[in-house]
C-alpha cells in the first residue's frame, strides 16, 4: 500500500520499573496496616481501600518523591507541557483486592494524571485493563489486534511497576482468580498553575 499511516491522538500509558522499592519500604505491611486503620475500608463490593491521604505519611516518602519526579518527566517530556507546573498529588490510597473480587470500570475525575504502583505481582494476578475512549459502531473480525482495531489494552500486574496514565482514561481490574491478595497503591495528580493563554479570555489558575 503506497500510503502514509498517521496514528493521531495517541494515548500514552507510561510504565516505569522502581526495582526494589516495595521491599525497601516494606510496602505490603504498610498497605495492610493502612487498611486496618480505616473502619470504612471494606466496601460493599468487598474491595479494601485505605483513606486517600497515604501520600502524607513519612513511611512512603521515597515512593511519593519518585512519583512526583516521574510525573514531571511525563508532563514535560511526553506531553511537552510547560515546566512551571507544580506536581500536586491530590490523593493516594492503598488497595487490597481479595480473591474473587474485581475493580469496576471507572475514571479518576478532576485530575490530570492517575496511576498505580504494585506492591506484589505475577501472572496469576489480574492485569489492569484500559478502554479505548473512541467507540466505533461496528467491530469487524480481525486477523491480528493492533492500536487501530482494539478496544482494550492490558498491562500485567508486576511488582515494583509504576504506571502513569491520563486520569480520564477508563480502566478496570478483572476478577482476581488467584488464591492471594493483589496489593497496590493508587494515586491522582493535578498540575497546579495557569491553564490556557493569559490573553485568550479562557485562562484560569488552578
UniProtKB/TrEMBL annotation:
It comes from Gimesia maris. NCBIfam families: TIGR02466 family protein (TIGR02466). InterPro entries: CHP02466. It comes from the Bacteria. Pfam families: 2OG-FeII_Oxy_5 (PF13759). This is Uncharacterized protein.
